[in-house]
Write a structure and sequence with these properties.
Layout (H helix, E strand, L loop, with lengths): L2 E5 L5 E4 L3 E5 L17 E9 L4 E7 L3 E8 L2 E5 L4 E4 L3 E6 L4 E7 L6 E8 L9 E6 L10 E5 L7 E2 L5 E7 L4 E5 L5 E9 L2 E3 L2 E3 L4 E5 L3 E6 L3 E9 L3
Parallel strand pairs: 13-14
Antiparallel strand pairs: 1-20, 2-3, 3-4, 4-11, 5-10, 6-9, 6-11, 7-8, 7-10, 9-12, 13-15, 15-22, 16-21, 17-20, 17-22, 18-19, 18-21
Length: 238
């Protein structure tokens, strides 16, 4: 049975703390919406802008797969495992929080905001040894193509997590169309449109709209304008 859910951009949670402006697709912090708790294993999709020199002080996580995707600017990361790094556009960062980790994130720039997506996925293994990884991908490889950025396999393209999930990003010219074949039976797909206008299985999306669909084996993607897309395939049943 096909099921869909559509989240218009302006219906997301809106938290503006001055130094941080965050839009929450799913319930997070002070934003609580009982019908927007998760999409299967996808628990958090935060669209964050952090002002120059500001950031999140050291805070703990456990038993969550945390993925950060910078869209603009430079984000500095420090954690309790001794990692210190800067992630930029084209980079993908992942943390398996497992049995517990503490980290901080700051805008490295003194004059430009940093924009990034922070995504949480429920793991399929609990209390694993915490892990950090960061890779740099070539954004040109997602021009009129779906570039894999995450999978369950350490030997596959992109970063890996403890879950049967696959993420792809694509940057499409107006009129380009393609079909995505799901990797795992019983999974669903949540599409988040970063820019432009697009049709997915007949559903029209504008910039920052989100669309979830399950009970299918393939989805059709049609760029109605120049468009940029993040596609997240995750288990529906936990």
């Amino acid at each position: 049975m096909i099921k869909t859910i559509f989240h218009k951009a302006d219906t997301r949670g809106d938290a503006n703390h001055g130094w941080l402006h965050s839009r929450h697709t799913f319930s997070f912090a002070n934003y609580h919406h009982p019908e927007r708790m998760n999409f299967g294993a996808l628990r958090v999709l935060n669209d964050d802008t952090v002002e120059p020199g500001m950031g999140f002080g050291a805070h703990p996580h456990d038993n969550m797969e945390i993925i950060s995707i910078p869209l603009e600017g430079d984000l500095e990361h420090r954690d309790s495992m001794g990692n210190i790094s800067v992630i930029r556009h084209g980079d993908i960062q992942v943390m398996s929080a497992g049995r517990g980790i503490t980290h901080s994130e700051y805008n490295k720039s003194s004059d430009k905001p940093v924009k990034f997506l922070q995504i949480w996925v429920f793991p399929n293994k609990r209390n694993v040894i915490p892990r950090y990884d960061q890779i740099t991908l070539n954004p040109e490889e997602r021009h009129n193509a779906l570039q894999q950025i995450l999978s369950p396999d350490p030997n596959d393209a992109g970063v890996w997590i403890h879950q049967k999930a696959w993420f792809h990003m694509g940057k499409f010219d107006k009129g380009y169309s393609t079909v995505y074949q799901l990797k795992e039976k019983g999974n669903g797909v949540y599409a988040f449109l970063l820019d432009g206008t697009m049709s997915i299985n007949g559903q029209h999306l504008n910039t920052r709209d989100g669309f979830g669909i399950s009970g299918i084996e393939t989805i059709s993607i049609q760029a109605e304008s120049n468009a940029e897309l993040l596609l997240m395939e995750v288990p529906i049943h936990l």
